[in-house]
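All the exercises in this workshop are built on plain-text protein records. A record pairs a protein's sequence with a compact description of its fold. Backbone structure tokens are a discrete shorthand for how the chain folds in space. Once this layout is familiar, the rest of the handout is easier to follow. As an example, a complete record with its sequence and its structure tokens follows.
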Amino acid sequence: MKSFEFAIISRRSGGFTLIELVVTISIIAILAAVALPRYITLQTQARAAKTQAIFGGVRSAAALAHAQAIATNSTAAATVSMEGVLVDQVNGYPAATNTGIVTALQLDTTGDQVTITPGPPTLTIDTVGGTAPNCRVTYTEAAALNASPVISAVTSAC
């Protein structure tokens, strides 16, 4: 009797039954169906957060460049030096160009995964992966001396 039980046990320990495999695959499919929408939502939230971070960076870079222009008494000058790099100015604030606000912001299109469309007078920064123009930061140059530039962010379709 014992030899018969041993033969059955050794034969069953060779692999999984078809039912076990189907149940396992079904559980994995259910988990994937629940996780995939959450993953897509996280990507959208990450792009929106990135766009908001770029928006804050543009505001800060513009304010710092303006402060540098005031501190060096060069609000009417064409450039100011920020960390040893010349930043083009228009009316005391960075210009809406790659050598203006983009240089002040130290933004890199490849590393930061953005698409930049320079102006002037308006520069747009689109977050890669979002739906343009609904995942973008817009920078419009200052219209007059010491008038603030117009900076806005749209995150409705990131």
Observations:
- Residues 19-154 form one domain.
- Helices lie at 2-12, 18-71, 101-105.
- The mean pLDDT is 89.
- The chain has three helices and seven strands.
